[in-house]
Amino acid sequence: MLTRDAPAKINLALHVTGRRPDGYHLLESLVVFTELGDRVSAGAAEDDSFALEGPEAGTLAAEDSQGNLVVRARDALRKAAQRSGHAAPPVAITLDKRLPVASGIGGGSADAAATLTLLSDLWGYHPSAQELAEIGLSLGADVPMCLAGTPLVARGIGEALEPVEFGFALDMVLVNPRIGVSTPTVFKALARRDNAPLPPVEGLEDRARFLGWLETVRNDLEAPARQIAPAIGDCLSALSDTGALLARMSGSGASCFGIHADADAAAEAARRLRQAYPGWFVAATRTRSAPGRQVRQAS
Ligand SMILES: C[C@@](CO)(OP(=O)(O)O)[C@H](O)COP(=O)(O)OP(=O)(O)OC[C@H]1O[C@@H](n2ccc(N)nc2=O)[C@H](O)[C@@H]1O
Ligand SMILES: Nc1ncnc2c1ncn2[C@@H]1O[C@H](COP(=O)(O)OP(=O)(O)O)[C@@H](O)[C@H]1O
């Protein structure tokens, strides 16, 4: 049995700069990944199976498992393997779901990316990074960045990736008001799609300078998402009230992050938020600098 982490994706900044003729939006986004994430495990089996567990499995358990991004990733990789003459025998897969669903932190995309690399190892089928990214992109615009799993600037519709190297980690608190927000609905509600591009990232070696730079950029999806789900505004205020140096929405929402001075400040803010908002998802975590590719042998 192999297990792989599927870290949450945080859009520290997201500028919408245009729209393609097929309706997909052009983005420029600074993305990081966190210690917090889902976990995907898989092993050889007589027949294919898919099981869900974990604190956030509920919503997905009610959906058709054939539509789950883990199953779709398995099927897409198997098709590619078989096309090039590789065997892709049956697998038993378990998804340990810890990230809230449809919440702007890319849980489904992270699960798909983890499944692709995990099964690639299990089957001994190793397409090039470019081929794997193409399979990923066919599953969702965020999957290639989740395959990279390292801090980066994403452009295009999210598939053109430029790694960036941080000299420090960011301690943060993630909150979600438990309102699922539909990504296409948020994109549709944008007032304008020709916003200024993301300026070059500054302060990658100096946290205070970086936070100064981060103040100057935005998430263009925040305003339309707040119109659809006003509780996002409550999350942002609550994060600021509990001492976040900067609070912003991730992706198309409704999850928001607050950046804190250190891990103790983040843990204390999370404790206060859990107490004040027992219905919310609240988690203290920190960014990772290396890809979420750790493979563990599970018993
Ligand atoms: C907004 C972002 C920012 O990272 O994150 P999330 O809120 O999903 O976490 C992503 O662009 C979401 O990527 P992902 O969730 O993989 O999107 P997809 O499944 O490919 O697309 C869902 C829908 O979102 C819209 N979409 C997505 C990406 C993009 N660049 N332009 C779009 O307009 C389209 O309406 C598309 O039909
Ligand atoms: N493994 C999965 N985890 C989360 N959502 C999934 C998964 N598989 C399919 N989905 C579907 O994808 C949609 C978007 O989910 P998710 O990736 O969590 O959104 P976001 O990228 O906004 O955080 C959900 O509404 C859900 O129906």
> How many helical elements?
10
Report the biggest beta sheet as strand number plus sense, adding barrel if it closes: 11 strands, mixed
Tell me the domain tally: 2
Distance between the termini: 7 Å
| Helical amount | 25-40%
| Structural class by secondary-structure content | alpha+beta
Low-confidence stretches: 292-299
What is the β-strand count? 11
CATH topology title of the largest domain: Ribosomal Protein S5, domain 2
What is the top-level CATH class of the largest domain?
Answer: Alpha Beta
| CA radius of gyration | 19 Å
Beta-strand portion reads: 25-35%
Ligands bound, unique: 4-diphosphocytidyl-2-C-methyl-D-erythritol 2-phosphate, adenosine-5'-diphosphate
Please provide the ordered H/E string of secondary-structure elements. Answer: EEEHHEHHHEEEHHHHEEHEE
Provide mean pLDDT, rounded: 95
